[in-house]
Design a protein that fits this description.
Blueprint: H1 7-22, H2 33-42, H3 48-60, H4 66-71, H5 74-80, H6 87-103, H7 107-111, H8 115-123, H9 130-140, H10 150-158, H11 168-178, H12 183-199, H13 217-222
Helix pairs in contact: 1-11, 1-12, 2-3, 2-9, 5-6, 8-9, 10-12
Length: 226
Amino acid sequence: MTRTPSPARSLRRLLDALHAIYGEQPWWPADSPFEIMVGAVLTQNAAWSNVEKAIDRLKAAGLMSLPALLDTTHEQMAETIRPSGYYNIKAKRLRNLCLFLDQAGGLEAFAAWPLDDQRAALLGVNGVGPETADDILLYALERPVFVIDTYTRRLLQRYRLARGDEDYEQLRALFEQAIEQDVHLYQQYHALIVMHGKETCRKSPQCVRCALTKDCPSSAAAGRQV
């Protein structure tokens, strides 16, 4: 009788395959943990290339620091991050995050909090949802929390590792229970999934160009070669 592979084995096999294709990923690109936190807010509903433009504008204006962002006006902040889109909304969310960090005693003080307290506090900041909070935890604070995004949901469904109706916490638990808690591994796995989602496993899958087609249950079931 053929034994069905465990979720942990399937996830690790998928990771190994993605790593073999794309190699080590230098993600998240930033000069400081604070810049990562800013980028986590700006990347909401935005292409990363536009986020980079907004970050470059913040740096050029001397605003890439907690004190500088707290001292600037909403109008100046919004105009500076305009390339990231939804700039008025994101300026409010970014200020909310900065106010929270200031009340927490700064980034260094917040980094010393227990993980559960950090995550709960971030989720309490207006405009910071689970994906943004976990981006901050995994990449800025280097805590072992897996990030679930659109690319991850799509890949899990196509590999029959998720039904599609799971909520964020269910999918996060799937990874964190199946894969050992390792910050570098979580960072690489998430980055590799994003890379694969952008390259071939798009909303309209590019199976003919995908090196994983022969192992993908969705591709095999549909008989896709285009």
